[in-house]
Design goal:
44% of the residues lie in helices and 12% in strands. It is α/β, with parallel strands linked by helices. It starts with 6 loop residues before the first strand and ends with a helix.
Amino acid sequence: MQKEKYEIVVSGAAEFNHCCKNIKALSKEVGKEIARQKCNLVTGATTGVPYFAALGCSEAPPATSEAAHVKSYKLPLSPFDVMIYTGSDYAGRNVIMTKSADGVIIICGRIGTLHEFATAFEIQKPIGILEGSGGTADKIRIIATGPHRGVKKIIYEKDPKKLVQRLIAEIKREKNKNKRSS
């Protein structure tokens, strides 16, 4: 049985001077692990955290060489494989991107990241928070505590690989639960 591919959004700061010192490496490691788990990375195709996650994802292609990547898999070498122009500015793009995914990972971040978190939270998507990355990510635990609607599906983790793996496990649980109830 072939493993199902999940769509995972990586949301984070486009400018990251307020993030932790190793933010580039952490972002790339999340992207690499998403690729290793045979999932699709979805970002807002911007600079900073999403860009480095995409670079990490592109460094872990399914092929064994660059030639096989281009020839056999017919995949581009740049970090962004597909661009969808929504014409919806940032706020609309964030909602479309978040709603289209199976899960969302928050790394550092600013107000746009908070918007993507709030969207994922409201529609009850599984969410992974890379703790210790700075910015919005390190404030989510406080924001998500207290009065809320619905079921919390938030995973807090400091290790990028474990975060991706735990998020995928939650996505699988969610999908299996939905299959049983339909």
